[in-house]
Amino acid sequence: MSTESTGKGRPTPKRKVSQAKRITSSLAPVVTKEQKRAAKLANRQDRIAARTAYLRGEENALPARDRGPERRFVRNYVDARRSIGEYFLPIIFVVLILTLIPKASVQFGAIAVMYGVLLFAVIDGIFLSRKVRKLISAKFPQSPTKGLGMYAWLRSTQMRRLRSPHPQSKVGDKVN
């Protein structure tokens, strides 16, 4: 027996190559960069189409919290009226600017206006909630009204442009 070894006949593979062989399954399909790019583009287009359908208010694209004829009615009812809640965020921005003025009376007045608008928005929300539940009970007698008042109030506190799904009715429209 000779002490001299003949070797294995090939160079030792780099660690990166060995790890890649272990990670990649032999059953996995071979995917090229072009196929990955095409799949990514198709997924993006599907997401865009689904979001557009959601913003339009298509029933099959809506999440569970927005589905159903009752919720559609509530959205249309809220969107057909103006409420103080939708102006709360711009008012808060103005209050923030006014509190930067180093005059105590201006700061106090701005904060008083903010709390007054907040109180008025809460009271408006309570009355809106009651009205919506009463209308839903009359229009959809078999449907439960649980959660619809809060749904209406939360939608009424969002600025009209930022509501999603987008408003389907204009301010002043008669809701059926």
TrEMBL record:
InterPro entries noted in UniProt: DUF3043 (IPR021403)
Region Disordered: start-end pairs: 1-21
Keywords recorded for this protein, A-Z: Membrane, Transmembrane, Transmembrane helix
Chain segments annotated as transmembrane: 84-102, 108-129
Name of the protein: Unannotated protein
Keyword Transmembrane belongs to the record: yes
